[in-house]
């Protein structure tokens, strides 16, 4: 077994194994770190931008466009669950689409309710291993590579936005070449080390683009919801680029769904483009609240776990 497989096996087993006193202690420490990191960063953000200004934008935003933003985020999660299903299919884990969607929303809910515990991805690994007797390592890599496809899509849209922003004084061939070269290396690594998972490469990465496009539309809806934003006179690309850059906050482990981290990055990046700081925080915080609202839809399956498998065919033994 290679070193990379050892890491995967260890991470997967940690997600499903019975908690020892060390595991419980580490869980408590993670919760403390999450509270400290998230709270500290939010304090930093609101020391720069008064909360009253952000609250005013949230409470006076056009309700119809806020509803549209929630709808776009919900659709992005449908695409995201569909993308993950492509990776599961690659390892011959033929999940019923209804079960996969329910499991996806349940995992999102666990990420909100149990940020310092097993988490949404860990719960998926545990449940799929228990139900389908599939090695935890295979499920772990499917979920991890699903996340990587999302970062690839962020990179693609980011390159497109860089080309559209005159203030970024760089020839369009530079970011394009870097992205193309990175994509070729990324594809080669998948083919060389994770060939099994790359069976649906083009389909899964097409869905990844759909996910990030819908999330960009969330930001556009939040912008239009503000009375001082005029879509034909205000440059929208810098806001979107700031948002995509802040989206990389998802990789920060000790934050509550990127909360605080996303806001801090959004404020600092948007400052480069001379954007309104209160608008930047409103966008990042509004996106964060929407993600929590949609994630809590999975609470239904936390309360009534037997509904997870309603209407599903029996498991083939």
Give a written overview of the molecule.
- It contains 13 helices and no strands.
- By secondary structure, the protein is an all-alpha fold.
- The chain has one domain (3-309).
- It starts with a helix and ends in a 14-residue tail after the last helix.
- Residues 1-12 and 14-18 have low confidence and may be disordered.
Helix/strand layout:
Layout: H1 3-16, H2 21-48, H3 51-59, H4 63-90, H5 97-113, H6 119-132, H7 136-164, H8 173-193, H9 201-224, H10 237-247, H11 261-272, H12 277-295, H13 299-303
Concise summary:
With 317 residues, this protein is mainly alpha-helical.
Descriptors:
317 residues, mainly alpha, 73% helix, globular, disordered N terminus
Gyration radius from CA atoms, angstroms: 20 Å
Choose one word for the global shape: globular
The topology string of helices and strands comes to HHHHHHHHHHHHH
Could you state the oligomeric state of the chains shown? single chain
Strand content is under 5%
């Amino acid at each position: 077994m290679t070193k990379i497989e050892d890491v995967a096996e260890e991470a997967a087993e940690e997600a499903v194994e019975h908690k020892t006193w060390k595991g419980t202690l580490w869980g408590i420490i993670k919760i403390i770190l999450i509270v400290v990191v998230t709270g500290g960063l939010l304090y930093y953000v609101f020391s720069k931008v008064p909360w009253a200004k952000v609250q005013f934008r949230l409470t006076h935003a056009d309700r119809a466009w806020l509803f549209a933003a929630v709808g776009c985020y919900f659709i992005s999660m449908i695409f995201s669950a569909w993308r993950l299903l492509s990776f599961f299919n690659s390892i011959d884990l033929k999940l019923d689409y209804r079960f996969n969607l329910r499991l996806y929303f349940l995992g999102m809910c666990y990420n909100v309710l149990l940020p310092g515990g097993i988490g949404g991805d860990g719960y998926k690994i545990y449940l799929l291993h228990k139900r389908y007797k599939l090695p935890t390592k295979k499920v772990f890599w499917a979920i991890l590579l699903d996340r990587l496809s999302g970062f690839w899509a962020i990179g693609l849209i980011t390159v497109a936005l860089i080309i559209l922003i005159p203030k970024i004084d760089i020839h369009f061939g530079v970011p394009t070449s870097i992205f193309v070269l990175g994509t070729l290396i990324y594809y080669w690594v998948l083919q060389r080390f994770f060939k099994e998972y790359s069976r649906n490469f083009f389909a899964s990465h097409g869905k990844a683009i759909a996910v990030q496009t819908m999330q960009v539309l969330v930001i556009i809806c939040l912008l239009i919801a503000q009375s001082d934003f005029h879509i034909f006179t205000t440059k929208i690309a810098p806001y979107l680029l700031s948002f995509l850059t802040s989206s990389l906050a998802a990789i920060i482990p000790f934050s509550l769904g990127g909360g605080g981290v996303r806001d801090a990055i959004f404020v600092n990046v948007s400052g480069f483009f001379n954007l309104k700081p209160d608008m930047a925080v409103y966008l990042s915080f509004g996106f964060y609240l929407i993600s929590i609202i949609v994630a809590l839809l999975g609470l239904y399956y936390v309360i009534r776990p037997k509904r997870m498998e309603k209407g599903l065919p029996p498991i083939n033994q």
